Amino acid sequence: MSVADPPRHPVVPRDPPVLAPGHTAASVTDKISSVVFGKMPVWFYAGMAVAFGGVMMLLLSLTKLVFTGIGIWGNNQPVGWAFDIINFVWWIGIGHAGTLISAILLLLRQEWRTSINRFAEAMTLFAVACAVIYPLFHTGRPWLAVYWLLPYPNTMGMWPNFRSPLIWDVFAVSTYGSVSLLFWYIGLIPDLGTLRDKAKNLWQKRIYGTLSMGWRGSARHWHNYEQAYLLLAGLSTPLVLSVHSVVSFDFASGQIPGWHTTIFPPYFVAGAVFAGFAMVITLALPLRRLFGLQDFITDKHLDNMSKVMLVTGLIVAYGYLMEAFTSWYSGNIFETYVMKNRLEGPYRWLYYSLLVCNVLAVQPLWFRRVRYSPLAIWAISMFVNVGMWLERFVIIPMSLHRDFLPSSWDMYYPTAWDFSTFFGTIGLFLALMFLFIRVFPAIAIFEMRTLTPEAKVKEPAH
Amino acid sequence: MHAETRAPELHGLLAEYRSAQELLDATRRAHAEGFRAMDAYTPYPVEEIAEVVCDHHRSRVPLVCLIGGVVGALSGWALVWWTSSIAYPLNIGGKPYNSWPAFIPVIFECTILFAAFSAGIGMLALNRLPEPYHPVFNVGSFRERGSREGYFLCIEAGDERFDRTRTREFLTATGALEVHEVEA
């Protein structure tokens, strides 16, 4: 905001603060909780209406699917996996930034994570919720999915095959969803206590009071709390790395050319963080602008998030390069053809768009001026959101539509129901985000208090 | 309010301070004075205060988490081993029934799941939460500022050195803004 807001920062300081000067524990509390207790602006209702329309579209699409069958989607032989898996991987990937910010950056003592971790974690939860819809409904009969997916003693005496990456996926994603929910809720407890104390209305007091479990900020409680929080961060770190690795095993352990590569786990994890940070930027910048949270989400955050996006973008670009190199160096006719098909095949424009979105579009982030311009990085984040979706399209249907046997080659075209389900989950995600901003503090209040100068205590001089 | 026939039971004396630093200094003095049944209340975690209040005892959350993780790993392993080798052996690509390398992801996820929930629920249990009623909330200024900007020290009536007047004098001497009696 150095250009748009000259009086506050006349010159962009070399190292802008993570919390604007002049804030106290009280002012931070009042500012953040005012979003929950204040009146919502008109755009909030407008946005919620659009998002809610998306939720209705999702329900309609899923109802149609349940009554008709998955034939309403465009996937069929040879492309058995298409929008359902593209969107699943896309959403799961977006969730990863939330855990990265809340867990890994906590362990690395990155103070700037504090003001973005709460809604990034919420983003993780909602993204996982959207992701889970796809494999569940791809089964066609989600009510039977319980015994297809989960190990429980049933009258048929059947159990899942634990050697299959698909069952690993069930365990990885369900653990990830549960642990993320726990981490998010534990993080919310002290702030729910604050909301309980600030609430004027009896029902608000009761609901926040129940959710806060009677939190009173006791030093004995903080003692255990801090330990638990750190442990959850420590456990979430390998967890988040495992989740997208396991997702990539779904492909890497199959023998389809274009899937069967060892680079997939790290390449998927980097792509997930890349996509996730792009989504954090996409959501954080409008949020900070519309609620006037520039004191908490400062230029420092824009700078750091852009750098993470640039680095992970470069890792992803390296992945693309290695895919091309391996397909040439393998000397294998099928592997070579995958690359040829990407560059010259019927879907080539998607591959070129992918390179533009994920490789070219992020390069301006090398420049400081760009990293400090909210508009520029917001635009770049939108490129990345699209690019990461295209990446999954390139990997999934483009590998499947032309595999070993030319006689079984075919084209894949999504149907209107594919799109309505996809846009429906975007609506669901945004609607959940709007509700979250409305009822919970979108920035962790108690953690922001620790950034105020008054929170620094000295050891005694003896 | 009707006239009270007898004085209410006392939970303790609650002193309010201006800053985390003042609260820390007061907590240290109270600890040096020999008070042990006390608790400090801050709107955000202050490690130094927690250490004094907890008498430098370590938290038991890591132990609970470790036990949870071990139980998770063993149950995960037992699940996959028993179902794949005993209950429902399937020949998948000629692999042995107990093909343990393929079982690692599931065992790993179970370990994390159990360890995380042990840490989270263990923390709540060790803190005796949820706790619908606690006496400190009877103090108006605590309700108003406790979760916002207030720094409080409560010396509880259960402490053997507690004395209504002398403890109040002690707390005032540590620089408390105000000392409240907390009804139990």
Oligomeric state, counting identical vs distinct chains: heterodimer
Tell me the β content of chain B. Answer: 5-15%
Class of chain A in CATH? Mainly Alpha
Question: Nearest-angstrom radius of gyration of chain B?
Answer: 25 Å
Structural class of chain B: alpha+beta
State the total count of DSSP E strands of chain A: 0
What is the count of distinct domains of chain B?
2
| Helix count from the secondary structure assignment of chain A | 17
Low-pLDDT segments of chain B: none
The largest beta-sheet of chain B arranges its strands as: 2-3-1-4
Backbone shape of chain A: globular
Structural class of chain A: mainly alpha
H/E series of chain B: EHEHHHHEHE
Element string of chain A (H = helix, E = strand):
HHHHHHHHHHHHHHHHH
> Which CATH architecture of chain A?
Up-down Bundle
Distance between the termini of chain A: 45 Å
Task: Give the largest interface.
Answer: A-B, 69 and 70 residues
Q: Number of domains in the coordinates of chain A?
A: 1
State the major sheet of chain A: none
Helicity of chain B, in percent? Answer: 40-55%
Low-pLDDT ranges of chain A: 1-7
Secondary-structure blueprint of this entry?
The complex is a heterodimer of chains A (462) and B (184).
Chain A: H1 25-37, H2 42-68, H3 83-107, H4 114-138, H5 145-149, H6 165-198, H7 202-212, H8 219-252, H9 264-290, H10 299-329, H11 333-344, H12 348-360, H13 368-371, H14 374-395, H15 397-400, H16 416-439, H17 445-449
Helix pairs in contact in A: 2-16, 3-4, 3-8, 3-9, 3-14, 4-6, 4-16, 6-7, 6-8, 8-9, 9-10, 9-14, 10-11, 11-12, 12-14
Chain B: E1 10-17, H1 20-33, E2 38-41, H2 47-53, H3 61-87, H4 104-126, H5 140-145, E3 151-156, H6 164-173, E4 178-183
Antiparallel strand pairs in B: 1-3, 1-4, 2-3
Helix pairs in contact in B: 1-2, 3-4
